[in-house]
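Why do we bother with a discrete structure alphabet at all? Because it lets us treat a fold like text: something you can write down, compare, and reason about line by line. To make this less abstract, here is a complete entry for DUF1360 domain-containing protein. Read it the way you would read a sentence in a foreign language you are learning: slowly, and without expecting to understand everything at once.
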Amino acid sequence: MSLHLQILWLFFLAIPIACVAWTVTHEEVFREPREYCVKRSISGKTILERKFFYLFTCEYCFSHYVTLFFILLTDYHLLMTDWKGYLIAGFSLVWIANIYMSLFGLIRQDIKWEKTEIKSLEQRRDHPQTN
């Protein structure tokens, strides 16, 4: 695979990795399992148990495992064709996926702030204060 194609794969393969990692660690559809994992990550009896359940609550941690799954699924490697190429690909995909998730988080935060601001302006318009 040419270097140009490898780079394209890097940026495109990071999209589903980011999507899966964000959905599991942030979205409402996985709220109950995530709350269970949070409880177990706090109250677990062993450090291994606490760390295992923590990885389902942290998008950065979870993205490593999602990346491993996608590397196994696609046989993607970067720069080198042996195990070093898989290692480089793994950390590169995690990094790009986390940039995507950070940008997505900032966009969602901005949208939420704008909705709150609009709601506040509408309430002031509908219920003006009297002096």
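What the structure line is telling us, in plain words: Helices lie at 3-26, 31-43, 47-54, 59-74, 83-126. The chain has five helices and no strands.
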